[in-house]
Amino acid sequence: MLLQALIEAKLFDRLAEARSDDMEKLHIANETFENIVAFVRKLKKNPTRFAESFYTDETGRFKGFQLQTNLPEIPEISNMFIEFLDHNISGVKETIKARSGRIIDQNTRTISEMYIKLFIDAPPAVIKLTNSYNAWFVKNLADILEKSNYRSSFVHEFTHTLDFRRINPQYLIDRAKRKEASDIRDRDKYANDPLELNAYYQQAISDFYDQLLKTKTVEEWNAQVGETPQRFAENIVTLYLRPQVKKRLSPENKKRLMKRAATAWEYLKIN
User: Cβ contacts of residue 176 below 8 Å, gap of 6+?
Assistant: First the structure.
């Protein structure tokens, strides 16, 4: 158990070691989300265009598309798919807005595909019939993505996909086996898992940055960022880190997050 804790601490340090890249990663995540929404808008609520671009589930309902095929070229989205799934049809509880995953070739120990799933809520009246569901999907998808807070959840899951690309797939395989073997979800362990902690941190910074962009003057911007790295870091952990993670952070991981956030202050402060 001690060895596993040491491995995970080392992994988190590795994920966070290039803190100067945090803003670049956030930019890529947000740019990808904006391109997804723009692409859906480009289809102009036209069922024929949706049928040309989207693949469907086994019942014929519109489901998703490959990012690399339909979006501007971004290396980080190669072999990645985006899917839009109804909560009720998928059997996923309503509090879950997004999930990410990967398909690993067990023979070559390489990732062949990655995906991000965004969960939506179709009216009960349209769920039973595929044609009704597809008509609703075509008409409402773009508005749902723009009006709801999917960007934040997308940033979290996109961070996972970036991490999937740069760590040993064997770790992901072993991690999945440990989860399957556990009958009860250890919330403390989940909150301090290096991949989850990295994703929650990036999500917190992204949520803060969204608020920062609403300022109108340099003075307002700097006031929002804060006078010192310490104050900024405390603000991120206290106000923007998700409660389920914040209250379960180990002292060591809180120190790591504070140090990392302090570095972000240097990039956000306008002199």
Answer: none
Q: List all residues 6 or more positions away from 12 whose beta carbon is below 8 Å from its beta carbon.
A: 194, 197, 198, 253, 256
216 has pLDDT over 60: yes
pLDDT tens digits along 86-122: 999 999 999 999 999 998 887 777 888 999 999 999 9
Q: How far apart are CA 266 and CA 255, in angstroms?
A: 17
Q: Are 24 and 96 in contact (CB under 8 A)?
A: no
Token pair for 263: 């570095």
Q: Residue 253: CB partners within 8 Å, gap ≥ 6? A: 12, 192, 197
pTM of the model: 0.88
Report how far apart, in Å, the C-alpha atoms of 137 and of each of 106, 143, 152, 181, 221 are: 35, 10, 22, 37, 39
Place of tokens 């390489």: 110
| Helix segments in 62-111, DSSP class H | 67-70, 87-90
